[in-house]
Amino acid sequence: MSFLTVLVGTAAFAVAAPVAGCLLAGLDRIISARMQGRVGPPLLQPYYDLRKLLEKDDVSVGGVDGLYLTCALVFTAFAGGVFFTGGNLLMSAFLITMAGLFFIVAAYSSRSPFAEVGAARETLQVMAYEPMVLLMAVAFYLAVGTFNVSGVLALDAPAILLTWPVFLGYLFILTIKLRKSPFDLSMSHHAHQELVKGMTTEMSGRTLAKVEVMHWAESVLFLGWTGMFFMWGGWPSLLVGVAVAALAWLFEILIDNNFARVKWQYMLKSAWAVTLVAGGANIAALMFL
Fold first, then answer.
1. Which residues cross the membrane (predicted)?
2. 273 — phi, psi (to 5°)?
3. Which of 30, 109, 221, 228 is deepest in the core (most CB within 10 A)?
4. 263, exposed or middle or buried, with CB in 10 Å at 0-12, 13-18, 19+?
5. Which sequence spans correspond to the domains of the chain?
6. Cα Rg of the chain, angstroms
7. Rounded to an integer, what distance in angstroms lies between the CA atom of residue 119 and that of residue 117?
8. Which residues pair with 88 in a beta bridge?
9. Is the Cβ–Cβ distance between 219 and 201 less than 8 Å?
10. How many CB atoms lie within 10 A of CB 275?
11. DSSP state string for 217-267
């Protein structure tokens, strides 16, 4: 795969992913509202909120958080570009982790005690889900024979048949990566769970808008990871992958609206336990097949 292909894919992802993520965020709000017996906001409410943020003055305490978030956006775009052009899954995982680290540094740079608590919790979340992501990439390699996502198109059957324990483990940590309750420790979109806004306490205007766009793009990427397990043999299987990703997304909304936030200790222990059991056992089985 040429570097030019990745650049074109990155540019396409940088444009299309925030649009798709914005629509998903709007649907999320509507579905959540209906689950709670409310009508909910219009579908494009996240876009209206983003436009309002872009029109506001960008007040920064540390002065460099906007720069760090720009770097996080760039790494997110490259992670999506690598993945959706059929590139290296492990590289995509590393790039999105780098984006998360820049986000953490941006929160720390404000020197706000509330933002620092949120950044510390975000660091714990990275420690909780990252081992499972790495084992997912390893299991994908053992099942497909390559780290390249395009390798699924040469399979006679979807990789899920060999990697279903890892897939279940990935679904568990997907709740953390999508920032859904009960694992939305560092920042939450639920107003009743926050006295202050965690990592984004000191962020406003265009800086906060970057956070929203990054989250929308991340959501599309993570759902793409979900669908790749169900693709094989040709592009028609893409429909199967999209359908499974949609079901996983609906499942995460259901979890988000039915579970209260847990303590960080439970999140860390449960994520590592799932990683050890699901990821470790699956990889051990694949190595001896």
1. 6-27, 66-84, 90-110, 131-153, 159-178, 238-255, 267-288
2. -65, -45
3. 221
4. exposed
5. 3-287
6. 19
7. 5
8. 148
9. no
10. 24
11. HHHHHHHHHHHHTT--SSGGGHHHHHHHHHHHHHHHHHHHTT-PPPPHHHH
Q: Which residue has the tokens 């579905």?
A: 31
> What tens-digit pLDDT sequence spans the chain (289 residues)?
678 888 999 999 999 999 999 999 999 999 999 998 888 899 999 999 999 999 887 776 666 888 899 999 999 999 999 999 999 999 999 999 999 999 999 988 888 888 888 899 999 999 999 999 999 999 999 999 999 999 998 899 999 999 999 999 999 999 999 989 888 888 766 655 555 677 888 888 888 899 999 999 999 999 999 999 999 987 788 999 999 999 999 999 999 988 888 888 999 999 999 999 999 999 999 988 6
Tokens found for residue 131: 């081992």
Q: Please give the structure tokens belonging to residue 86.
A: 């059929």
- The structure tokens 């299309």 sit at 16
